[in-house]
Specification:
Layout lengths: L34 H8 L43 E2 L2 E2 L41 H24 L3 H25 L7 H17 L3 H13 L10 H10 L3 H14 L5 H18 L2 H14 L3 H14 L2 H12 L18 H10 L3 H28 L3 H13 L6 H15 L3 H9 L6 H17 L3 H14 L4 H13 L3 H14 L4 H13 L3 H14 L4 H13 L3 H14 L4 H13 L3 H14 L4 H13 L3 H26 L3 H14 L4 H14 L4 H28 L4 H6 L3 H6 L49 H8 L15
Antiparallel strand pairs: 1-2
Helix pairs in contact: 2-3, 2-4, 3-4, 4-5, 5-6, 6-7, 7-8, 8-9, 9-10, 10-11, 10-13, 11-13, 13-14, 13-15, 14-15, 15-16, 16-17, 17-18, 17-19, 17-34, 18-19, 19-20, 19-21, 20-21, 21-22, 22-23, 23-24, 24-25, 25-26, 26-27, 27-28, 29-30, 30-31
Length: about 800
């Protein structure tokens, strides 16, 4: 019975009991103490004897199984114990392979517990001691890192002041952290990376807040600390600061020190530092050294900015051959962008179409467009800069540039250069050559044809040849229906013919194609005024005012619309904004005086009429109003002076231009002598006398020249006294000039006779200009009324095109390294 083991009294319904019982025979840790195992290892005890041919009978009795499922072992024919039997108190292990974790309950004494629940809950974690020095250091280090991150985030959001405060706070806490760490551990365990990041961020924030001295001191602390690796490259940032301070010699010194400390494997950074050195040389005027720097860059790693700056440097020294070579190097710079064919779907495959649509306007595509636009701008600007100087004439120079561009990857820019050539002809007032150049594009592709036709329409419109202007406007619209400039010019030609409704339709279509087309928006406001749709006109001008905040024309039109709507208060308010933009506009001042006069405010009306008279003393209407005002206020002597001036101006407008334009210099000389006799202190009259006497060869020129010099000196001294009196005196200008008119009349009695005769007299040649007897200048004393019909001529969109194409030829891009 010693081999019979009773099963434990467990619940018969527990189907999974005993599967995880442990057989002590598998306890490998106790093999050293297992006598049976040790004996089997040392001797042949327990080995299976060899099998012989004679197999004895195995008819032995089987053990009787008990009711609990246990069995007695059966002896084999060779006397070997059966597998799984217990012999001498030790259970022999099974020879078959069993599933992991499975064993019979008869051989084990523990229940099935795969989750180890019988062992009870895990012991609680050891409580963290927050008062320990190591924990305090860890928390403080975490706080410093958070402050550095917050400083960087504030800088990226544009809050530079908050970024600097966070950086300073991080620096203070980092110093406390270093002291605490020195007390607890050895100095070798100090976190140098954290110290470096805190100091670097603090220096960057100082530089962003333009506190350059503090930034340089902080950078010096980093650079001089030998424990910081690669700190020498921060001398680039120090050079950037010296460049901002215009200390160019030190900037070059630090750039070169940084260049020496950066290994040659960092090729891109070395190229950028070389570019900064070249730009600094340009700012110091050392163009030869700048050329050497940029040529080195173009030979090692050519880029657009270096090529453009190389052209500028060569232009500064006037070397034609170097300019040509530099332009060819700029043209040869690879763009490194994909072709446009990549973004065109080659088939009707829906998956391919979806992919093309996804990448057609992604960030990479936008970056490619920006890079291409920048390259085209540099090339166009460089061509416009060097074309007039590389050859004997600008036309030959432009032709050379066009040929070079046609042989490069920027073939489409050749047509734009031709258009710029025509615009250069316009600036030189050679309209025939400009027209001939633009007409060459009539058989080109639609985009270039539309641009050329737009400019031709603009030229013919300015010459009042509306039929030709309309013809070329139609050509431009047909070539490119979505060209807002072409639609605006077409609307202008229709406007000139009086068809305002149709003109408004063209302006609306231009705005639908480009909502930022200010010319179309301005012209549609003028069209609505002509159609007496004042509310819509006002809405258009207010929209334009939101785009062009300080446009005098827009402010003037808004005031005029309010005046037409019989709202003088609003008109006065907008005119006040107008004179804040153009305080010397005499017509706006006289309009303000007129509105105040209509409102019954004579004092304010006098103030603005008088200001208008000061800036433009030849306006007869203003002079007559001032004379009538002095009569009403019982100052007849002052009124007589103004009426005499008005009479003289009227006489001069009738007689003097006729004698001058017909070449009757003797009569003009007599007229000037008469004016000088009546107004001996008139400086402009003396200037004309000196010029006429010099041209005719009279001996009186010396006398008039001496009088002119004396009067100019007296005028200068008088202006200085007036200026010093204004600086020391108190009270408002309006009070001084509007108090019954007596004070202003007395203070100006000495200088009233020396006022200018007319606006167009000033337009005649001065003393330092040659007098042209055959001058075809039109002499007209009438002033262009900004509220009158002259300003209502529609703007031409081609004018804007010409201005936009005029780049800043000598603008340098300082490619400073990011800090």
């Amino acid at each position: 019975m010693e081999n019979v083991h009773l099963a434990p009294e467990t619940d018969e319904d527990d189907l999974y009991s005993g599967f995880n019982d442990y057989n002590p025979a598998y306890d490998t840790e106790e093999l050293e103490n297992d006598t049976g195992f040790q004996q089997a290892v040392r001797t042949s005890h327990g080995r299976r004897p060899p099998v012989t041919a004679k197999i004895p009978s195995t008819a032995v009795s089987r053990p009787i199984a008990t009711g609990y499922g246990s069995k007695t072992s059966l002896a084999s024919s060779m006397g070997r114990p059966m597998t799984g039997t217990i012999q001498d108190g030790v259970a022999r292990p099974m020879t078959a392979v069993r599933a992991a974790g499975f064993s019979k309950a008869a051989l084990r004494g523990s229940a099935f517990d795969p989750l180890g629940q019988s062992r009870g809950p895990a012991p609680p974690l050891e409580a963290k001691n927050e008062d320990s020095p190591e924990e305090k250091i860890r928390q403080l280090e975490k706080k410093v890192n958070e402050l550095v991150e917050e400083s960087c985030i504030a800088n990226s959001c544009g809050d530079l002041k908050l970024a600097l405060e966070k950086a300073k706070d991080a620096g203070r806490k980092e110093r406390v952290l270093v002291r605490q760490r020195e007390q607890v551990t050895t100095p070798e365990n100090i976190n140098l990376d954290l110290t470096y990041s805190v100091l670097f961020n603090l220096a960057s924030q100082y530089s962003a807040n333009e506190m350059y001295a503090e930034a340089l001191n902080t950078y010096q602390v980093i650079v001089k600390n030998k424990m910081f690796s690669n700190a020498g490259r921060l001398k680039v940032n120090m050079g950037n600061i010296y460049l901002k301070q215009r200390n160019y010699s030190k900037a070059i010194k630090f750039y070169r020190m940084a260049l020496d400390q950066i290994p040659s494997v960092h090729k891109e950074m070395r190229i950028k530092i070389m570019q900064n050195i070249g730009i600094t040389f340009i700012k110091t005027g050392q163009y030869s050294d700048a050329i050497n720097s940029f040529e080195h860059i173009m030979s090692m790693a050519p880029n657009l900015k270096a090529g453009f700056n190389l052209i500028l440097s060569c232009f500064a020294i006037g070397d034609r051959e170097k300019m040509k070579k530099a332009f060819q190097k700029l043209i040869a710079v690879p763009l490194e962008i994909d072709e446009d064919d990549k973004y065109i779907s080659p088939s009707d495959d829906p998956h391919t179409n979806l992919l093309v649509e996804a990448i057609k306007n992604d960030h990479l595509r936008q970056m490619e467009r920006e890079r291409k636009a920048m390259a085209e701008k540099y090339i166009m600007t460089a061509a416009k800069l060097i074309a007039p100087v590389i050859e004997s004439s600008f036309a030959v120079g432009y032709n050379w540039c066009v040929e070079v561009v046609k042989a490069s990857q920027y073939v489409e820019l050749a047509n734009d250069l031709e258009i710029n050539k025509a615009i250069t002809y316009l600036r030189q007032k050679d309209f025939n050559q400009a027209v001939d150049t633009l007409k060459m594009f009539e058989k080109k592709d639609s985009r270039v044809k539309s641009a050329a036709a737009t400019n031709l329409s603009f030229l013919y419109y300015l010459e009042n040849e509306f039929a030709q202007a309309s013809s070329y406007a139609d050509l431009a619209v047909n070539s490119d229906r979505y060209n807002p400039s072409a639609l605006t010019n077409k609307g202008n030609t229709v406007f000139a013919n009086g068809d305002y409704e149709k003109a408004a339709e063209f302006y609306k279509e231009a705005l639908r194609n480009d909502s930022s087309c200010t010319e179309a928006l301005y012209n549609i406001g003028l069209t609505y005024k002509k159609l007496n749709r004042l509310d819509e006109a006002l809405d258009s001008f207010l929209k334009l005012h939101a785009i062009l905040r300080n446009s005098a024309q827009v402010l003037c039109q808004i005031a005029n619309v309010y005046e037409l709507m019989e709202d003088p208060n609003q008109a006065i308010e907008w005119l006040m904004q107008l004179i804040s933009v153009v305080p010397t506009d005499s017509q706006a001042l006289s309009k303000l005086g007129e509105l105040y006069d209509s409102e019954g405010d004579k004092s304010q009306a006098f103030q603005y009429y008088y200001e208008s008279y000061r800036y433009f003393p030849s306006n007869i209407e203003v002079i007559e109003w001032l004379g009538a005002y002095y009569i009403d206020t019982q100052f007849c002597e002052k009124a007589i002076q103004y009426f005499e001036r008005a009479s003289l101006i009227h006489w001069l407008l009738v007689h003097f231009p006729l004698s001058l334009l017909t070449g009757n210099y003797q009569k003009a000389l007599d007229t000037y002598k008469e004016i000088h006799r009546k107004f001996p202190e008139n400086v402009e009259c003396l200037r004309f006398l000196v010029r006429l006497c010099t041209d005719i060869g009279l001996k009186e020129v010396q006398e008039y020249a001496t009088k002119l010099k004396r009067l100019e000196k007296m005028k200068e001294m008088r202006e200085q006294r007036i200026k010093s009196g204004r600086d020391s005196g108190g009270g408002s200008r309006s009070k001084r000039e509007g108090s019954a008119g007596s004070d202003s009349g007395q203070s100006n009695s000495a200088s009233s006779k020396s006022e200018r005769l007319s606006a167009k007299l000033r337009a005649l040649p001065g003393t330092d200009e040659p007098y042209e007897s055959s001058s075809n200048k039109e002499i007209d004393a009438s002033y262009v009324d900004p509220l009158g019909p002259q300003i209502e001529r529609p703007k031409t969109a081609a004018k804007k095109r010409i201005d936009e194409d005029d780049f800043a030829d000598e603008e340098l891009g300082d490619d400073l390294l990011p800090e």
